[in-house]
Design brief:
It is a single chain. This protein is α/β, with parallel strands linked by helices. It is globular, with a radius of gyration of 16 Å. The chain folds into two domains: about 60 residues, Roll (2,3-Dihydroxybiphenyl 1,2-Dioxygenase, domain 1); about 60 residues, 2,3-Dihydroxybiphenyl 1,2-Dioxygenase, domain 1 (Roll). It is built from two helices and eight strands; from the N terminus they run E-H-E-E-E-E-H-E-E-E. It has a four-stranded mixed β-sheet, covered by helices on one side. Helix content is about 15%, strand content about 40%.
Length: about 130
């Protein structure tokens, strides 16, 4: 039986990316960063090991990473008032791509922010706990 484990993303700055996902979005640094000479630096962030994000800084020479034309976004479920969370992130210098609105199905509120690597991150209210707006 298969199960989803993680999403791996290339980052341009490991420290900046760890700070964004832990200090701004509230995930935990689960492990790392590890340095693999000649290969990559890697760190793992998430709520727990059931589903996490693998941050990879490639040590080979290359231009800064850009979002691929088939990569859409990451999604995180947040605890608390989504509108307040977005305002707090805005105040901390996080780029807000799409402010709080109802999801296309109308079941819960969503918003989009941008990580330091230009990757969109969708923030969602927990299922079944949509706030009245």
């Amino acid at each position: 039986m298969s199960r989803y484990l993680h999403t791996s993303i290339f980052v341009n700055d490991m420290d900046e990316s760890i700070e964004f996902y832990t200090k701004k979005l509230g995930l935990k640094l689960l492990d790392g960063p590890f340095h693999y000479p000649g290969n990559a630096d890697m760190a793992f962030v998430g709520h727990d090991w059931n589903a996490y994000i693998e941050l990879v800084f490639d040590l080979e020479e290359h231009p800064p990473y850009q979002i691929g034309n088939r990569y859409e976004h990451l999604a995180l479920e947040v605890e608390g008032d989504l509108a307040q969370i977005v305002e707090d992130l805005r105040g901390r210098g996080v780029t807000i791509l799409k402010d709080v609105k109802k999801s296309p199905g109308g079941g819960r509120s969503i918003a989009f922010v941008e990580d330091p690597n230009g990757i969109p991150v969708e923030l969602l209210e927990p299922r079944g706990e949509s706030l009245q707006r």
